[in-house]
Design goal:
alpha+beta; two-stranded antiparallel sheet; 10 strands; about 10% strand; MmgE/PrpD_sf_2; 2-methylcitrate dehydratase activity; MmgE_PrpD_C
Length: about 500
């Protein structure tokens, strides 16, 4: 990997585009290196993973609304939309499928200086691949680039520190992935990256307080903007430059300011792209920082059933990282995180709620664990209000560690019981993490798909999709057009402008 120094330059510097981060990203996107077998295998896993959570969300309001918008834009050749037959404009297919993938907060993650769900790259790249008649190998290469660029940006540039939503790294990575897919030249990809970044910077209010349905739409919007940005760039249209380094650009005014400097890692020319192997998926439908806590809570509830009764508990304190405490913990100072009438999206970002339900139930379900009846159960509300979080410097250090062997997303729980005794335990990573107790492998991704597709897809449709997905690198363009699912959807379609 090469480290690229990125800082703000006054307009008088006339920074050559060859020295700009967007151009260097574009160069990576044009380097047609081989994809090694381990990386190809993981791409297949993530395509299956994305589809599984999309299938599970087909009847949810956000997904129904996004899909209905796409259905108003039929197009040929076009792209497929999860759940329905036919083909639609690629930007609208990317939009609808992006919302379906993101709705349940249940696919892959990468956490470093910034947060990300790199699987969000797949819907837009797949949509363009189908529309333009590309092969499975082309799609594979595009996805590898999307993951590489997003993860490299996430390693170096923090957005959340300045309350900018993490999808600002997704617009450029998806544009780069589409550029690789289509075999575009450096200049075109460079212009597309600039537009994609410029149009996808937004605040983190979408993940604060009363979290709305827009949380699922934000990455889909970034993917849709990436498709449109590439289209405009291919037509010869240009973008604000330098988008990162300009004196009125992203770094100067939205991030660390005119004196900032970042070291962004990018592959050398000819270097195999392996960033996808640094990411990790979710076994449970919840914010990634909750994954390990769910596993620990389930274990504690089984070992110590008395912990499930609020009458036996004085307090529960989760000692954890800065991010977990301040974003999904009591440090956020969001009263909604303790509100039994809060939205699913809000409860998904409340570690006190998640820990309580996992402790009491010993399981975590993507539907039942968030139901209004479950959240309002009196004994749950009583126990939930005894759970707080606290930042622990060591867990914060491990969260930000660059050493995969010590990087951690969990923490230590201290439970004070009414009889004066204490229970103390800890967990570093989720069971499904590559270093966890039960690392996810192909069989787990396939089982996740079958589980979430049960009752939604016909068995033959489930097996057809799994067969295609597992042959991804060798799929013809015709076969790739079938990399979707059709379900018997009876949900009423909401009406809007279209």
């Amino acid at each position: 990997m090469n480290l690229h120094s990125v800082r703000v330059h006054p307009s008088s510097d006339a920074l050559p585009r060859e020295e700009q981060l967007a151009y260097k990203i574009a160069q990576v996107a044009t380097d047609r290196v081989d994809v090694d077998a381990e990386v190809a295998d993981m791409v297949i896993n993530r395509v299956i993973d994305n589809a599984s959570v999309a299938v599970a969300s087909l009847s949810r309001g956000s997904v129904v609304a996004a899909r209905s918008q796409a259905l108003a834009h039929p197009y040929s050749p076009g792209s497929t939309v999860f759940g329905v037959p036919g083909t639609y404009g690629p930007e609208w297919a990317a939009w609808a499928n992006g919302v379906a993938v993101r709705e349940l907060d249940y696919h892959d993650t990468f956490l470093a200086a910034e947060y990300s769900h790199p699987g969000d790259n797949i819907p837009s790249i797949l949509a363009v691949a189908q529309h333009t008649g590309r092969t499975g190998d082309d799609l594979l290469r595009g996805i590898v680039t999307g993951y590489e660029i997003q993860i490299d940006l996430v390693k170096a540039i923090s957005l959340h520190k300045h309350k900018i939503d993490h999808v600002a790294h997704l617009g450029p990575s998806a544009a780069a992935g589409i550029g690789t897919l289509l075999g575009l030249d450096v200049e075109t990809i460079y212009q597309a990256i600039g537009q994609a970044l410029h149009t996808t910077t937004a605040t983190r209010q979408s993940r604060k307080g009363e979290i709305s349905t827009w949380k699922a739409y934000a990455p889909a919007f970034a993917g849709k903007m990436a498709v449109e940005a590439v289209d405009r760039a291919m037509r010869g249209q240009t973008s604000p430059t330098p988008i990162y380094e300009g004196e009125d650009g992203v770094i100067a005014w939205l991030l660390d300011g005119p004196d900032a400097e970042y070291e962004v890692p990018l592959p050398e020319w000819g270097e195999v792209r392996r960033a996808i192997l640094d990411s990790y998926t979710k076994e449970h439908s919840a914010e990634y920082q909750a994954q390990a806590w769910i596993d620990l809570a389930r274990r504690l509830g089984t070992q110590h059933p008395e912990l499930r009764d609020p009458a036996n508990i004085e307090r529960i304190v989760l000692h954890t990282s800065h991010h977990t405490h301040y974003v999904i913990g009591s440090g956020a100072n969001d009263p909604q995180k303790y509100d039994p009438t809060a939205s699913r999206e809000t409860l998904d970002h409340s570690i006190p709620y998640i820990f309580t339900v996992a402790l009491q139930d010993g399981v975590w379900d993507h539907v039942d664990s968030y139901s209004p009846a479950r959240a309002a159960r009196p004994d749950t509300v009583a126990l939930w209000n005894k759970v707080t979080t606290a930042e622990d410097a060591e867990w914060t250090r491990r969260y930000h560690s660059l050493d995969p062997a010590e990087k951690a997303f969990g923490g230590r729980v201290e439970i004070d019981l009414a009889d004066g005794s204490r229970v103390v335990d800890e967990i570093a990573v989720a069971d499904a993490h590559p270093l966890g107790a039960r690392p996810f492998a192909r069989a787990d991704y396939v089982q996740k798909f079958r589980t979430l597709a049960a009752g939604v897809l016909a068995e033959a449709e489930t097996e057809r999709f799994l067969d295609l997905a597992q042959r991804l690198p060798s799929l013809t363009a015709e076969e790739l057009s079938g990399l979707t699912v059709t379900a018997d959807i009876t949900t009423e379609t909401p009406k809007g402008i279209f």
